[in-house]
Amino acid sequence: MSVIEVRNLFKVFGNDPKRVFPLIEKGAKKDEILKKTGCAIGINNASFSIEKKEIFVLMGLSGSGKSTVIRCLNRLIRPTRGEILIDGQDIMKMNKEELLQVRRNTLSMVFQHFGLLPHRSIIKNVEYGLEVAGIPAEERRKKAQEALELVGLKGYENSMPNELSGGMQQRVGLARALANDPEVLLMDEAFSALDPLIRTQMQDELQELQARMHKTIVFITHDLDEALKLGDRIAIMKDGEIAQIGTPEEILTNPADDYVKRFVMNVDRSKVITASALMRKVDVITVPKDGPHVAVRLMEKKGLSSVFAVDGERRLAGMVTIDDAVKLERGKKKDLTPALTTDIYVTGPDTPIADLLGTAMTANYAIAIQDENGRLMGQLDRATILAEMYDDEEEAMTPLDEILENNEEAEMEREA
Ligand SMILES: Nc1ncnc2c1ncn2[C@@H]1O[C@H](COP(=O)(O)OP(=O)(O)OP(=O)(O)O)[C@@H](O)[C@H]1O
Ligand SMILES: [Mg+2]
């Protein structure tokens, strides 16, 4: 079941917001509605669901409605229309008490500007939410202590906020959110105020934390690289609408419209697209069952110059070239195994293709993609990698073009 389910959510700011619905239904856009009515559309018919343990990133230009969405989730603001289910419960129908419970036990917010109380020590800042919730002193101290350790701030319990760097202060913010062990973390531009180096470090730490704690995280960012790095799925917002929801790969490879395309234009695709997205189905022979004859027939039929060999469990056994297989066949040999080479580059499905570029440049054969049990999943051809990385961008020469050109020259020289 989804942790959060949002259905046809609208938020209109301004007087008598309901009067704008007829305009929305006629397809009027945000600017027009603002001009005509003075009402600002915060969210326009957003529907999505967030699964347990995923990092769901909300991304979009300033004013596109990201913060409004996150604030509706914990009902810091009241949606104009629509449904929000948290663990299957409609928060629009909750009374004050129930809402408090959800905010305390299910959702925790981490803010951009840390929101620390300046006159409280670090440990007392982390304890704050627990204190408000009426948790006994000893218990909340213990929980706060644990949360501080989680974010690597053991030893700073009695420091004051202004004695800590920005990155450390944000860790305190994170610790405070983690202290009540919420199911969902809501993070609105949580790392945006940090300088780039610290920011990258915090992203890494969040990923590590997530690997251990498996929270559900709703993460808002302006930064595409941050979105791609952290997001299991990304929702791109435009003028209060959700323009597209998808995995980083889906968004990059299949942008829904020009707005999304503009967002992803400058990203280094090779860091995000993984081997599994580009691999193709692989033709194999099975050893020792198949001999040289079968191998030659297969390669002829498929127009291949080499083919992977697997064992009965589909584990990679090696590769044989057409030349070697033909030699064995002519020699009337039945066993192919002496001709198998294991000089193959093997990688997992999640390797970014950027990491495979060097291999693609030098490898003689396709790259084999193996699952965690050592079974052959597919193959990745050098041409595919290169085509993907320099896809339809008519740029000046890339370093890669240069290498290719040099190689070609070298080859021509050798032939001459
Ligand atoms: N309290 C409010 N009163 C009136 N309009 C508001 C209010 N809060 C937000 N809006 C409007 O709703 C729209 C969405 O704002 P929101 O703050 O959600 O954007 P955002 O995507 O978080 O932007 P940013 O990246 O700048 O934080 C904007 O047009 C904004 O002007
Ligand atoms: Mg915002």
Q: Note the total helix count.
A: 17
Neighbour order of strands in the largest sheet: 6-7-8-3-9-10
Any idea of the CATH topology of the largest domain? Answer: Rossmann fold
The separation of the N and C termini measures 66 Å
Tally of distinct domains: 2
Structural class: alpha/beta
Percent of sequence in beta strands:
15-25%
Going by CATH, the homologous superfamily of the largest domain would be: P-loop containing nucleotide triphosphate hydrolases
Second CATH tier, the architecture of the largest domain:
3-Layer(aba) Sandwich
Hetero groups in this structure are: adenosine-5'-triphosphate, magnesium ion
Which quaternary structure do these chains form? single chain
Rg, rounded, reads 28 Å
Q: What composes the largest sheet?
A: 6 strands, mixed
The first-level CATH class of the largest domain is given as: Alpha Beta
Mean pLDDT: 88
How much helicity do the residues have? 25-40%
What's the total number of strands? 16
Low-confidence stretches: 392-401
| Gross morphology | elongated
